[in-house]
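Q: What structure does this chain adopt?
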Amino acid sequence: MKSLAVLLGGVVVALSGVAIAGPLKDSTLAVRSPDEAPTCELDDCNEYCDQLDQGYGVCSEDNCTCSDPSKISRSASPSNDQCCFGLTATGGPAGILGQLSDGQNRIGQSLPTASYCIGPNGGVVDGDGRGCILTPPTSQWQCDQGAQSTSNFSIGCDGSFMYNGNSTFWSCPTGDHGGYNVYTNPIPGQQDCVNVTMTADSCQSGCTPPPPPPPPPAALTTLAPSPQPSTTSTPPAPTATCPGSSSCPTNICPVELSGKFEFPHLIIPIDSANPTYAYGTQFNGTVSPNIATIFNFDIPASATGQDCQLIFLFPPQDALETSAYTLSGSGEIGFSMLEAPATQDTTWENAPDVAKDLGTLTVAPGNSYTVAKMGCPAGNTVAFKMEGCGDDDTCLSWFQDWNPAP
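A:
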């Protein structure tokens, strides 16, 4: 059976088996009467418009309408707090997002490329100025004339298009020329829905590269600043008061990862000393008497039918090239799988409940640990939590590195 691995920096999960813009200028439409245009079949209409060098075709009753996409400009007088962009989907059905004439956003089907603008509150409009909304009860994302845009969309520093801080969307087949509609949740009973991510071709700020690993502190472990951009001041990272660092064995870590593996895509610390404070995603994982850390992994749909392993790799410090860690106390850590993924707004108080207790391990440098084995939750985002055990004094903090362990 094939293998897939998911990497948590020093920790590895191995899986076996806006700125933003206002409404755009209306496109120019060239309407042909039935005696000038062919009977309106979409393929014929597209060919007819292409011959006239008037862009793509749109069928309306028996009329073939030609719309020149060059008349749609993303820079159509945006205000200072707006930005316009296009989207490309990956993960399931892939390609540039297009749009039907009624405002349905679709992947595939060779539709005209859609243009969007996002505002300060995260509301999106399309190139015709229609508000883009999540339609109940299915949460389909489409753009309707006169509709007030659903808020809380955003574009991450790397261009990831997100809703409520989550970059995972769902695409479900329409049965119409290979097209897929876009949803924020899968449709109940629809077995062919797959999760996708979407990337904007502009409006991203560019992510700040990770800082070099700091020298180990004598008493306090401080998490690195969040990599996510913010319009407000950066919140302080949680701190853990720990005893002095323990001595560590120096034997070389015995496991070498092979095959596919996944890195965590969100690292969220939660702090019992500040139970309602959301620290957002961080570069470091931390476990202490008051801090637990949640790790999100996006398991690709291609992992269907494979087995998964959650692996914690803990190399000795002298074997690391670009990472660093501090450890004090007994090293006893609890692991669990959660009922839902974390978000940028997750706190100690609202963190997802534990779906399955994965037990405890006493960790030490120079070792690797298989925490759990399971069937791969293909096409889903899954979250694991690391935390201290009861009154134990373990304090562990590490820089979550993308480089493989030696």
